[in-house]
Amino acid sequence: MVDTSVNLCGITLQNPVIPASGTFGFGLEMAEFYDLNVLGAIAIKGTTVAPRLGNPSPRIAECTQGLLNSIGLQNPGAEQVVKEEIPNLRMHFRQPIIGNICGFSVDDYRECCRIVAPNVDLVELNISCPNVHNGGMAFGTTERGAAEVVTAVRDVCDRPLFVKLSPNVTDIVSIAKTCENAGADGLTLINTLLGMRIDIRRRVPVLAQKMGGFSGPAVFPVALRMVYQVHKVCSLPIIGCGGVQSAEDVIEMMMAGATAVQVGSENLRNPYACPDIIKHLPERMKQLKINNLNQIIGIIE
Amino acid sequence: MELIVTRNQRLAEQIFVMELSGDVGTLPPGSFVELAIPGFYLRRPFSVSRSENGSVTIIYKIVGKGTEAMSHFPVGCSVDVLCGLGNGFDVTKARKKALLIGGGVGTAPLYQLSILLKEQKIETVACLGFNTLSEIFLQKELEENCKEVRITTLDGTYGEKGFVTTQLTDIEYDYFYACGPLPMLKAVCELLPTQGQLSLEARMGCGYGVCMGCTIPTQLGPKRVCKEGPVFEKEELIW
């Protein structure tokens, strides 16, 4: 028997496969497809203090090997998430839940974390959403912004605090180190890449917001590279995220330095993406002579 | 699930019908299926036009490269399909007389609906709007189930010239069901005083409620076209 379990800041996951925030709702819809308890954990939909309808439509654009989204953090607000969504998910799901926190000011992040953190097992601080103005990614693209948010949230967060970083930066390593110094317990790498498509017949951008976040298999090498670079210089555990669609991708991401892996876009085209990966993972481990996944984390020099 | 293409042929200008066989159960009228198309990242949603035990029929319009590729699927090939998505029309809403309104390819789901209404002995009139004569489809099939089928074309090449809304006013009915482009649905809502259900089209990411790509504001708060819809009550919609 191979061992697929991994440990994130003292929390044991039965396997490293986690549906990424924004690609899994609050989990209940997916419970109609399969038993969620096969998952390592679930990262729930990005949550803000106040309810949000999100951006105007269209807010999805297909691309080669991926898609753009400009949802804009649609969510029912932190109080509702804590009162309804998380308890409903807990009725179907006994594994760890990762809350994804977003805001438009440092105070927003702090307030949202104060409400959500006690109700989840890990917190993921989303300072990398490219689809909202005056917030989200604005904090994640400078060392100063990242440090401010992490510092502000740290003392209201009694759960392991992961920071989800943006790839839309010149040097992700320096931002990662800033987060580490500000007291983060881990990092999620990466959020979506800012992208754009144009409808050449109508001569307008496909997305109503013009630009959106690019994700899908096409971004896998970028995500992998960033996980690798950050793991080299940062001692925090990393959740690798970006274009993962197979058990092989999970293993590759872990070899680059990830302790766990999030699956995002693939959930949107194959509702069974995560259980499929989880089913194939032990087979691939056996073939590759990996007895325990912890043996391969960051083995690439 | 994997379904087998048993029919894939042209019905009208840019309009194709595809029959897929497999263990699909009975799918509600107005619900939709999603097909995976090799070489394209996201699935494509299509409303169910006809559902029998062991097969589902969709009618699709070629609007881009994905649907173009679908039109070349050979009979006998296997397709990855998600079935039973969305809510569907509620056939119990019509009491005695129903009005069906279809615009272009939006006529597709009205076929299954017309069959079920006929089974319930509901007298039905269908009003269909197309751009032009060469794009008309399902006329004969609907005539089998409806008391009357009225057709308008924008260019006047068949039936009355104009929008489908030009011929709705003198029909006796107690409930309407509509599917078509958003401007048509808006015009229908503004014109008709009665209650009704409308099936919306939307650009979807997933099709099963997890990406929030197709959310619309409604009188009852944000709703996902793919999950709480695609069929909405007239009073819910905000135009």
Any overview of this molecule?
Chain A is an alpha/beta fold and 301 residues long. Helices cover 33% and strands 20% of the residues of chain A. An 8-stranded parallel beta sheet of chain A has the order 3-16-15-10-9-8-7-4. In chain A, a hairpin with a 2-residue loop joins strand 1 and strand 2. In chain A, helix 5 (143-154) packs parallel to helix 6. Chain A is globular. The model of chain A has no long low-confidence stretch (mean pLDDT 96). Chain B is mainly beta and 239 residues long. Chain B has 2 domains: 2-85, Translation factors (Elongation Factor Tu (Ef-tu), domain 3), CATH 2.40.30.10; 91-201, Rossmann fold, CATH 3.40.50. Chain B is 14% helix and 37% strand. Chain B contains 4 helices and 15 strands. Chain B has helices at residues 65-70, 110-119, 139-145, 182-191, and strands at residues 2-12, 15-21, 32-35, 44-52, 55-61, 78-85, 97-103, 123-130, 148-153, 160-161, 175-179, 196-199, 215-218, 221-224, 231-233. Chain B has a 7-stranded mixed beta sheet with strand order 10-9-8-7-11-12-15, with helices on both faces. In chain B, helix 2 links the parallel strand 7 (97-103) and strand 8 (123-130). Chain B is globular and about 45 Å long. The mean pLDDT of chain B is 96. Chains A and B meet through strand 5, strand 6 and helix 9 of A and strand 13 of B.
